[in-house]
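Action item from last meeting closed. Structure (302 res):
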């Protein structure tokens, strides 16, 4: 049977959810009479470099559906948007995005959870590439919970199995946003309940990252050399009896059906900064201490 090749697909990519500029794109399927799957190649035109179309290519093993899911995902759209913002990589015209190789797609149900790709971005003056391997996971939240009891302030942490590090780590309760609605504080409250069993009220949450300069986007970026993750860090302060502290210590929590093997740990706040290597903890402590020093925190409700 003869195989018809050279089919052209045209499609408009909508990025209105993220307020990113739209672009034109075409897709080319390069087919050969062989047992191998045809490579997928897709072309987009960015407003910042209209004369230089960008090729999006699927690495071997990436399926047609995963390829299109990656291109249409909020993770990829947001990354393209970031490139073209006021302080984006492409904003000053001395850099150009030439090619993106989609290398890995991990689905969380019907949506992409993790996306791995390599971007060829070059310095126009020298022709040299800048490092461009991206692990995209999107925005996330973390919560510093401080509980006062009998004159002592305690921090609530989670003990979790972290396969990428090969370690069991103490961390702040945290999690990724599940959708594109941008409900950071709602996600924070939900993650705390899932990971510790503690129910917090949205109105009692203080966004510590909101004290940052507007140029930061009011989020912290823990690993910009390889990951796009941006985290909003919240603070909760409350008072409890000593029995509650005892009940929390060692409590098993987490969504077991999702593989979350979590134990709750409670440590004195004065020892927190040297208790764990979790960057979320250390960033939260730094933000809290500076906000306290500058008198930015509202008074603790009684």
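Sequence:
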């Amino acid at each position: 049977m003869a195989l018809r090749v050279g089919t052209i697909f045209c499609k408009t990519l909508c990025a209105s959810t993220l307020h990113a500029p739209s672009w034109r794109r075409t897709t080319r399927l390069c087919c050969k009479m062989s047992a191998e799957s045809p490579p997928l190649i897709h072309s987009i035109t960015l407003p910042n470099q209209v004369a230089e179309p960008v090729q999006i290519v699927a690495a071997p093993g990436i399926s047609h559906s995963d390829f299109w899911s990656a291109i249409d995902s909020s993770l990829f759209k947001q990354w393209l948007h970031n490139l073209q913002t006021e302080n984006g990589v492409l904003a000053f015209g001395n850099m150009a995005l030439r090619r993106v190789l989609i290398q890995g797609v991990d689905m969380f149900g019907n949506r992409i959870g993790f996306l791995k790709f390599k971007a060829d971005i070059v310095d126009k003056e020298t022709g040299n590439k800048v490092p461009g391997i991206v692990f995209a996971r999107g925005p996330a939240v973390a919560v510093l919970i401080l509980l006062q009891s009998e004159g002592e302030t305690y921090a609530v942490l989670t003990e979790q199995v972290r396969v990428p590090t090969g370690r069991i780590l103490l961390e702040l309760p945290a999690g990724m946003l599940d959708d594109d609605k941008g409900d950071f504080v709602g996600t924070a409250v939900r993650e705390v309940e899932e990971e510790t069993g503690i129910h917090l009220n949205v109105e009692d949450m203080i966004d510590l990252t909101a004290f940052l300069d507007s140029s930061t986007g009011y989020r912290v970026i823990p690993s910009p050399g390889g990951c796009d993750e941006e985290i909003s860090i919240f603070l909760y302060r409350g008072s409890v009896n000593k029995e509650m502290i005892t009940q929390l210590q060692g409590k098993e929590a987490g969504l077991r059906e999702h593989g979350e093997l979590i134990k709750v740990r409670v440590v004195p706040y004065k020892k927190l900064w040297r208790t764990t290597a979790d960057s979320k903890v250390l960033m939260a402590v730094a933000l809290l201490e500076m906000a306290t020093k500058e008198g930015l925190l509202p008074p603790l409700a009684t």
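Note appended to the action item: The radius of gyration is 23 Å.
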